[in-house]
Specification:
The chain is of the alpha/beta class and 705 residues long. It is built from 22 helices and eleven strands. Strands 3, 4, 5, 6, 7 and 8 form a six-stranded mixed beta sheet that branches. The longest helix is centred in the C-terminal third of the chain and has 54 residues. It is elongated and about 100 Å long. The two termini are 34 Å apart. The C terminus is likely disordered.
Length: 705
Amino acid sequence: MLCRLACKNISKSVRDYAVYFLTLVLGVSIFYMFNSLDSQSVASVLDDSASSTMQMLSGVMVIVSVFVAGVFCFLIVYANRFLMKRRKQEFALYMMLGMGKLRISALLVFETLIIGIASLAVGLVLGIALSQALSLIVVSMFEADMSGYVFAFSPLALFLTIFCFSFMYFWVMVFNTISITRSSLADLLRSRLRNERIPYRHPWLCLLVFAIGVLLLSYAYYRVTVGVDAMVSPGMLGWMIVLGIVATFLIIWSLSGLLLRIALSRKRFYYRDLNSFTLREIHAHIHSTITAMSIICILLFFTICIFSSAMSANLFTARQLQESLPCDLMITKTMELPEDVGFDEGAIARSRLGILEELEKNGFDRTRLTNAMEVRFYVVGGEEEIRLRDTMNASTQAWLQENYPTVTLDALEMFMEVSDYNRLARLFHNEEITLQEDTYAIVADTDVWIQLRSRAMAAGSTVTVNGKTLSPNDDQCTYGNVEMSASRTNGGILIVPDGTMKREQLQYQRLFADYRAADTIGKQGAEEALTDFLDAHGIAWNSNGTGTSSQPDVYALTTRLAIRENVRTISLMEIFIGLYLGIVFLISSAVVLALKQLAQCSDSRPRYDILRKLGISERELRRSLFIQTAVFFLLPLVLALIHSIFGLQFCSLLLSMMGVESMLGSVIPTILLLVGIYGSYFLITYLCSRSILSEGMEDGGVQDF
């Protein structure tokens, strides 16, 4: 009997359960989708390195899922509270008919089980379908052979999803049981008679609080955009976030008392149609949800910034890999070690040998590498040392100090001779350089340093190298790569005429080469054979995926395979964690708003009944409800978008130091995600609100609301 009654209650309360059920289904599907990365069908088409990356990512997703499970647990309990509030008079009727509290609690247990099983079933079906799309994205990012891909199913994700959501449903049942057993019949009957009293707020106080909020927000915006340093301290960033949260609360608090006062000052607008009623309802909505709307605004802001930044970094990295990995390997070796620093004679002797020369001396078969090319990098030290500040005039240094005060100019300048650089430029498909005997050029690949170097060159800064004074060959720094790297790290290399540098000034040598194409062991096998050779002959080396210089007497081995594996790992984590948290924050924001709006509509239903009796048409009532719902959803979204304009500028500044030129490519996916989830909850909330407000209408009295 209880089971049959539970089914009837659910069927009669479909509109009340719509938001609750949608949240459960989305929660289950998202939870399964992001925990199904261990799918065996995906792993079967990936190589060993990619499979290890996926295992690492799966472990990270499980850790993130603990946080996500906590968020969804809060949402489910919060949504359940709304349903309990809506049904208190129904429970009072059950008590009056003789049903005990334990029987009512058992009825709620049955209802929770039915909804839980239904949402789990629908959510898992949707999650399994979406996980196939996620698997295809993973396979495409690793450029694997799609012919071996088959339908994927993850038992681990299924177990985690069922376990976590069953645990949540259990606590919902406990909460419902406690709520019913502690409620008296009188409390249940009076539940809809309690109206929140809205206090009067003086408009001048609201104006003052609004001005304070705007000033605090303006200061926070200034510190993360115009007034930001090149190296941002986490402490400063944390304080600006706290300042933004406080300012958001103050602005929403002031608007809750200010908007109605502004409307009251415009009598013709206020008394037109249902504007007075609509504005009063909006005022009540905002006043009762000030804290919730502030939190929602911040969550939406984090969603936009996290997802956009993750997408931008991923898109840039994909493009950067195409430009900066023109060959299979790069070996960097420190050259010409000084004799008076304490190095042993063997290390000093080895530093006089080129990379290929040393490898061949140890028995390496040079034919295992093709397109081999060695280039040299020089520094001028000692009494004639040339540092960064020596190549920049006073005005350029002043501009740097003003805009990037944390950047120092103490490092030694790096030099290349033009013939070496031009061979490197052909490899990286960059512009070659032509120099006169008394000129120099500069190549860099980051926007900040290109701008800085161009200022110095335009000012005519000269450089004296080994007694030869050189002038700029142009007023612009040239874009150019000088190493294999996943990011842009070249702050500037001075290109000088051949014969300018001395042998003892040689600092590094780099070898660029490809593995032999005809080698049957493949790229991975050739790489393992090379590292085995280095180990077998006592040549110290370290795997360096960033392209930075090696330590003395140590090879820095940078390979295309290693960089791609590192980049893919980071990119996958960025995009998946950003998407995972972005969707969860977005759903959290929309659910809280939807339930607040539905609860407010439930409390406002008597007022709508009075308006009907006064002859107000259903069309006007629907229009008023739509405006209320739209304003309620748009207010935190608009404020979050304003925050995001400045937040994305700050993110863009940080990403620009990595070489990311623009975040425009991530705007469209972010907007689609926002519109898809947030817009769906808005539409469902409006339709459910219409349904709630149509309850109790007299048969034939008015048309459906």
